[in-house]
């Protein structure tokens, strides 16, 4: 699904993707429309501009990924500002590409995003990795009498490990022989216990804990 408030640009991107054999299930020109249509068509990948009328792209990303953590979001923006890049990633975006990218680069980025690869315009990947390392090595100050972090159950840890490996909720449900809804409940409980907000933060936590190698 392609979201951009400029009709000619939006149509051109959709046309290039379709010509490459990708199935463009919908397009949208503003934030609220993007949320409505994405919930209706359930795309695998959302190609999203940040500067949208009605609702900023980061909020669109936050709402849709929060409701469906399996959704992959590739931000396609004219802005290469570091603050915009980091805000997009923190909102749940899988990758970030500048609009100066060529059609082939965009198509390759969409295909890689679809399988969960983090895709960034050269120069931006280092910025994001540097921020993640900083967050991992500079924990937020805590009060000396703050209670210990809640312990996850064995099942929650098992689900978290599979999330970190990039499995979808459906794949996790099949692997553990439980329902899709049960997987969602475990993830939501884990997010609440760890005081995290989305799948990106959850995966980062799992990687830092070494669960992706387990």
From TrEMBL:
The keyword DNA-binding applies. The keyword Phosphoprotein applies. Keywords: DNA-binding, Phosphoprotein. CDD domains: LuxR_C_like (cd06170), REC_NarL-like (cd17535). Residues 1-114 form the Response regulatory domain. Pfam families: GerE, Response_reg. This is Response regulator transcription factor. The modification 4-aspartylphosphate is found at residue 49. Gene3D superfamilies: 3.40.50.2300. It comes from the Bacteria. Residues 145-210 form the HTH luxR-type domain. InterPro entries: CheY-like_superfamily, NreC/VraR/RcsB-like_REC, Sig_transdc_resp-reg_C-effctor, Sig_transdc_resp-reg_receiver, Tscrpt_reg_LuxR_C, WalR-like.
């Amino acid at each position: 699904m392609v979201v951009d408030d400029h009709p000619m640009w939006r149509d051109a991107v959709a046309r290039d993707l379709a010509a490459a054999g990708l199935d463009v299930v919908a397009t949208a020109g503003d934030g609220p429309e993007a949320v409505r249509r994405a919930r209706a068509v359930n795309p695998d990948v959302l190609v999203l501009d940040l500067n949208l009328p009605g609702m900023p792209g980061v909020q669109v990303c936050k709402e849709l990924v929060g409701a469906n953590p399996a959704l992959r979001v590739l931000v396609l923006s004219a802005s290469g500002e570091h603050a915009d890049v980091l805000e997009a990633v923190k909102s749940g975006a899988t990758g970030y590409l500048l609009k100066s990218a060529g059609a082939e680069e965009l198509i390759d980025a969409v295909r890689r995003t679809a399988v969960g690869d983090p895709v960034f315009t050269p120069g931006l990947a280092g910025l994001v990795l540097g921020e993640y390392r900083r967050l991992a090595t500079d924990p937020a100050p805590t009060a000396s009498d703050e209670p210990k972090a809640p312990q996850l159950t064995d099942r929650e840890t098992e689900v978290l490990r599979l999330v970190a490996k990039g499995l979808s909720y459906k794949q996790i449900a099949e692997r553990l022989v439980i329902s899709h809804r049960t997987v969602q409940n475990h993830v939501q409980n884990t997010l609440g216990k760890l005081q995290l907000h989305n799948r990106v933060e959850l995966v980062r936590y799992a990687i830092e804990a070494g669960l992706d190698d387990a």
